[in-house]
Amino acid sequence: MTTYEASAPTGGGRIRKVRERHNDKLTIVLCVLSLLVIIPLYLGVTMALKTDHQAAAGNGLSLPNPFKFSNFQAAWDLVNYPRALSMSLIIAIIAVIGELVISSMAAYAIVRNWDRKAFRYSYFYLLGAMFIPFPVVALPQVKLTAILHLDNPAGVAILHILFGLSFNILLYSAFLRSVPYELEESARLDGCTTWQTFRRLIVPLLGPMNATVGIFAFIASWNDYMMPSLITASPHDQTLPVVQQIFSTSLTTNYNVAFASYLMAMLPTLIVYFFAQKWVLSGVTQGAIK
Amino acid sequence: MSASTATRSSAAKQPRTRSRASLTYTLMLFPAVALFTIFITLPGLVGMVLSFTNYAGFGAWKWIGFKNYDSLFHDSTIMGSYKFTLLFAVVTTVVVNVCALFLAVALNSKIRFKRTLRSIFFVPMVLSGIVVAYVFQYIFGFEIPSIFGGQSMLASSHWAWLGVVIVTAWQTIPSAMVIYLAGLVAIPGEVYEAAAMDGATSWRQFRSITFPLMAGYVVINTILSFKNYLNVYDVVVGLTGGGPGTSTTSVAMGLFNGFNSGDYAYSMANAVIFFIITVIIALLQLRLMKGREVSFS
């Protein structure tokens, strides 16, 4: 009853709002402003389809004529796209799985043992990473990963996991604190061990949180330039964003091929964005409010 | 606080289960703490110790006390990188937050194509910084001069920093915007209806209702963005390469350059200074946020 009464006025308000006029002036302003986002993207696409001559001579806003799809083939060969793509994918997959597993386990252990000093201190210790930017520890890390033979994509993935850790633990533990212990008690009474309780009860509960953390881990790992460019020793094992530097260092390549390559590098995150928009956006807000 | 007491009381009800289970809990926490210690704490401490030596990245070394720190403060390139980074971080934080707040308010009002417009404005958020910088390098370097004439902004040591601000803003406005949107959604529409009935203009509504209610979000966003911008690297590499000269060399970039030139210990001293500055700023901002939270509730 009370819920009905409380929601009734809001419902009425919504109906009135729909009938109200749209703010057309503001719509026009926003459409014009959206050009600031669209034009660079448009330029990227059209540039990638132009011939060498058009790219060098014409103005960037003109449509390509004729369309030259072979730029993509040229870029594909030049940066060894399949190789760089698989390196990016390997790093992103290890980073995503690692962040999900390691952070959720740690957050669960911390929240359920908050009364123990060791766990409480570990929490603040891990959160301290938020104050350590990568550049500060980068040089010794380069040494360390070389010593451990981790100056390769595996090492980059480990660092991605660690630099995401504090933020993820913050998210997971805030969520887990709101899960009542009574829920677990019944599982315990049925004879579940701690690990079984975590696997069968907590992990399914974490579903939406896992989606947010996972998508963020993917985008951050995919787009990172700093860590792979410094940590990975062999140029053959570089990720997609890093291999793009070939176009800025050599003067002989054409802009049309470079842009075709940039497009192919950005495509995977764009696809993730269009399919997982809801979680991407909710993730940003959750992170900020906690 | 209340969360911890709640856990404690429910834990007290289950003393037997808890003591038996604690090995599993320890094992669950272990990977995070162990990896963190090996890959972040340990290198951090080693780096800090080496900043007091003349270590070149290889071979023998000896203690030289505070010499590295002393020469740092007399190194105009390093001091220049701090000047650029701080100026850049302050300007970008202001630009991004003003634009993001405006766009969030606009995208939250009664407009047409709301969903489509939102989707478009969010796109830059998921793109890789270095690739975005490469695209803008072409736009600033060739496109704009060919349409409007004149010299490229990136070629001028006075204005190149502004290019870095613009590209960073282009890429990071969406994430600030998402946070503002989340805050705006929480403000009940009735408040605005009442204000409109009392004859408040939209600017007046923004000033007297929206902005005060959004102040907490402004603080959060300022902290998040400022911390982020202090580490600027990708966009600089892709857009200006630190130039012209060293006019847009950021602190992070200076640190990595030092590694290539063999000034290992010297760069570590620089990293320690950078770390201290980051911590001071983070603590200041946390204090500011705490005050804000209190005044809110």
From TrEMBL, chain A:
The chain crosses the membrane at residues 26-45, 85-111, 123-142, 154-176, 197-220, 257-276. It comes from the Bacteria. Keywords: Cell membrane, Membrane, Transmembrane, Transmembrane helix, Transport. The keyword Ribosomal protein does not apply. GO terms for biological process: transmembrane transport. Residues 85-276 form the ABC transmembrane type-1 domain. The keyword Electron transport does not apply. It is found in: Cell membrane. PROSITE patterns: ABC_TM1. One of its GO terms (cellular component) is plasma membrane. InterPro entries: MetI-like, MetI-like_sf. It is a multi-pass membrane protein. Pfam families: BPD_transp_1 (PF00528). Belongs to the binding-protein-dependent transport system permease family. PANTHER family: ABC TRANSPORTER PERMEASE PROTEIN MG189-RELATED (PTHR43744:SF12), ABC TRANSPORTER PERMEASE PROTEIN MG189-RELATED-RELATED (PTHR43744). This is Carbohydrate ABC transporter permease.
From TrEMBL, chain B:
The chain crosses the membrane at residues 21-42, 84-107, 119-140, 160-187, 208-226, 264-284. It is found in: Cell membrane. Keywords: Cell membrane, Membrane, Transmembrane, Transmembrane helix, Transport. It comes from the Bacteria. Residues 82-285 form the ABC transmembrane type-1 domain. It holds the Pfam family BPD_transp_1. InterPro entries: ABC_transporter_permease, MetI-like, MetI-like_sf. It is a multi-pass membrane protein. Its main location: membrane. One of its GO terms (biological process) is transmembrane transport. Gene3D superfamilies: MetI-like. One of its GO terms (cellular component) is plasma membrane. Belongs to the binding-protein-dependent transport system permease family. This is Sugar ABC transporter permease.
